[in-house]
Amino acid sequence: MFIRTFKVKKKTGTVILAALFLSLIAAVVLIARASTGRADIYTLKTEQDRQEFIHEMGWEADKEYTECKVVLIPEKWNDVYEKYNELQKEQGFDLEDYKGKTCEIYTYKIHNYEGCDDSEEVYINLYICDGVLIGGDVCSWGLDGFMQGLKRSDN
Q1: Structurally, how many domains does the chain consist of?
Q2: Which residues contact 111 (CB under 8 A, 6 or more apart)?
Q3: What is the structure's pLDDT at 11?
């Protein structure tokens, strides 16, 4: 039997221990994030990025946004915001992290919503903060309007 030992300087041992500890923390964070059902992270900084995302979700939309507005997500929410955030959580997003922050909402008209003709306008809204998608919806603003998640359900 052959045994080999090494003597590690105290400073080097501390560095190695710190590196192992940081690696462990990073692994725990990644596992926790994966298990929370969070949505994929989409970076949508350009029109092309947004168009590719809309297509990936199964929609045919106008080539340019209908509207872009900057909104402040309030610190305190009423029932409407709470319900809207429930829809976001179902998709893997959570607007709680963005309370008090501003984001841009890009709105595009959709042309392939099943059961709707062009007279009933259906839109996709993309909530983007610092170039990252943080939520969104597909909706109709009509009298018998509706709202759903971003992904086309028959995809």
Answers
A1: 2
A2: 60, 61, 62, 118
A3: 63
